Each structure stands twice: as structure tokens, then as C-alpha cells.
Amino acid sequence: MNQKFFSWTALLLSLSAVAIVSCTKKEAALEQPANTVVATDKIRIGHFASLTGEVAAFGNSTKKGVDLAQELFNAAGGFDGKPVEVITYDDQSKPEEALSTVTKLITQDQVLGLLGEVASGLSKVAADVAMRNKTPMLSPASTNPDVTKKGEYIFRICFIDPFQGEVMAKFATENLKAKTAVVIRDVKQDYSVGLADFFKKAFEAKGGKILTDTSYQSKDTDFRAQLTDAKAKKPDVIFVPGYYNDVALIVKQARQMGIKQPILGGDGWESEDLAKVAGKEALENTYYSNHYAPDTTDPTALTFIESFKKKYGGERPDAMAALGFDAFNVMINAMKRAKSLTREDIRVALAETKDFAGITGNISINEDRNAVKSAVVLKYVKGMPTYFATVNP
Ligand code: PHE
Prior knowledge:
The protein is α/β, with parallel strands linked by helices. It folds into 2 domains: 3-159 and 296-373, Rossmann fold (3-Layer(aba) Sandwich), CATH 3.40.50; 161-290, Response regulator (Rossmann fold), CATH 3.40.50.2300. Helices cover 42% and strands 18% of the residues. It contains 13 helices and 14 strands. The protein has a 7-stranded mixed beta sheet with strand order 7-6-8-9-10-13-14, sandwiched between helices. Strands 2-1-3-4-5 form a 5-stranded parallel beta sheet, with helices on both faces. A hairpin with a 2-residue loop joins strand 13 (375-381) and strand 14. Helix 2 crosses helix 12 (319-337), helix 9 packs parallel to helix 10 (272-278) and helix 12 packs across helix 13 (343-351). It binds phenylalanine (PHE). Residues 58, 118-120, 141-144, 191, 267-268, 270, 319-320 line the site of phenylalanine. Phenylalanine binds next to helix 12.
């Protein structure tokens, strides 16, 4: 290394915990070196989320959790006396916007790390950008296995869908004594396609039979054709691994058509909007796997719920809010352990995350950069998702 540059860098490092390196727009272009020290006296984390669009409930909840965590952290003194700034952009639930918001966070805002996305398809797009720019990305909630397979900068704090599929297959066969199932999947969502496959595999491995595996596309509104077919097959259970907005209509139409069987799903069901659209009667006899139970009795979670309610006018935090809260804190925890505040050292520290006590459980990052955590099964009771069981990995 050039001697002059070296001593200049050393001087800056000795002056401040955060080195200040001037960075022109040109230098900030896409292929930024991994060890770039962020050119700001602010410590910035980027957050990209669906604040509008198809799955707006996901992003808005996550943001509330992230914002609360940030507020508490800064109120307690921040990072060595400096506040942490979170820059959140709306990706509108669209892949092209996930791409551009993440690019902007990395190259213009010079964030040290990224939080996002919830929807796996959007996380996959963003992960390619994060990988190219050697910027650590931590997804709070994307469960599709391919997300972290993008490479060594991509992490998540949640379990993955092979496990989630197993959880619901186990629940169907053991708790509901199901021998047959119908699957209705959203072919537009990586998440749904993956979870449908993993459920199917696990259910068949337990001796179950899939009578029909049928599909729809996000934003469809009429599911009568698929449901007519499902009804005719007389399955013990129907598995619908979709997102809340479509699932709400599927469940509602199924009950209108006289389908009384249990309807099962995954974490994509998690939103108050589901009950608003489907109605509480239609949701009787439905179950889904999730990261957190809103009626938890865990003391740490209860403290979180209290402060969340205080900040947001009595609103109950859902799983995304809890995961957003945890994701921020796991990122901060890594930044504290990092040898220096560079993207590269934060990546190394994230990979070494062990036994972080989160609201959504104990978080350790494994060699595939995933968290191995237990899942809860929730049952809809009078329109409210209610704790039913815990399934350990
Ligand atoms: N796991 C979903 C996905 O990967 C996202 C999600 C997480 C939705 C948690 C709701 C709650 O797309």
C-alpha cells in the first residue's frame, strides 16, 4: 500500500472512531470496494421495504419495528455516543424498485448495511445488488432458501421454508390427522412456490397424499375454479402458502362455497388485513406457521409489546414488527463487535452472531447465513391469530 495513503488513513482513524474519507459521486459508483469507510459522521443503515403496493402491510409493520428499535437505541446513547440513522425507502412491492432503492442506499447514501426485504422475491433481487457492492444485507423475514444462497454478504434472522413446510406438514398429519391435502400456490411468488414444494415433500414423506396442486397469480380476485376443484377432491386439509391479501379472498370464497375443511398456510398470512377482508367466521378452522405469537407471555417480548403500543397508539405488533425490531438490533450488535465500521468487518461480525436474544427467539447465524429458530403455529380464534403450538427445529 502507498505509504502516504497509509499514514493519512491511520491519522484519520486515530482522530475518530469513524474514519472520514471523502468520496466523489464517481467513486461511489456501483463497484465500490468492500472496505470503503463511510463518508459521513452519521452512522447509516439502509432499509428498503414495501410501504405501498401489493404487500404494503409487510413493509409498514417492519418499519414500525425498525423505527422503535432505532429510537430506543439512540435514546440509550447510540453508537459510542453517536446516533444511528436509518434511511428507509419504499420499494412499492416491485422488483425494479427494490433494485433501484438498494442501489441508491449503497451508492448515494453510503449505508454500512441493509435491512430488508420481507418478500423473498424482492430480497433475491436486492441481494444481487448487495453482493455486487459487497454490502451486508440482513433480511428480517424472507424465508425462501435461495435468498442467502446469493452469497456471503446476505443474511437473515428468520427460519427458512424447508423447515416451515415441515412444520405445517407435521401439524397437518399429527394434530389434524390429515391423510390428504390440496395445495393452492401463487406462481408469481418465489416464496409461495418454494413453500408449496417443501410442504408437499414433507407431507408425502409422512405418508400423506396430495390430491391436487393448483395455482393462481398474485392479485387474482376470483378463485372459484381452483376451489371447485379442491372441493370435489374432498381433502382433509387445504394448504395455501400465499400472501395475506390473496389468502383473505381464497379463504372467504372457500367458505362461501361451503368448504369446511381446515385451511392452512405459512407466515405470508401474517397481517391484520387478512381478518379485515376474510372476516372472522371464514377464518374459523384455519392455522398458519409464524415467527412469533402476538399473545406471547415471554417477558422480553412483553416489554417490546408495551413500548410498541405506547409509540403506535395501542397497536399490537405483528411478526414483521417484531422481526424488524430484531433485525435492527442484530445489525447494531454486529456493528459493535466489528473490528471497524466497514462493510467488510460488519459482514464478518454478522456471520459470527451467536445467541442473540431477540423478541422472535434466540438468533444464531449458521454457516449458510440463516437463523435456526423455532416456529409457532397460530390458530384463528374469533378473527384473532392465537398461539396454538411451538415447533422446534
Ligand atoms: N416469509 C415471507 C417471504 O419470504 C415473508 C413474510 C415473513 C411474510 C413474515 C409475513 C411474515 O416472502
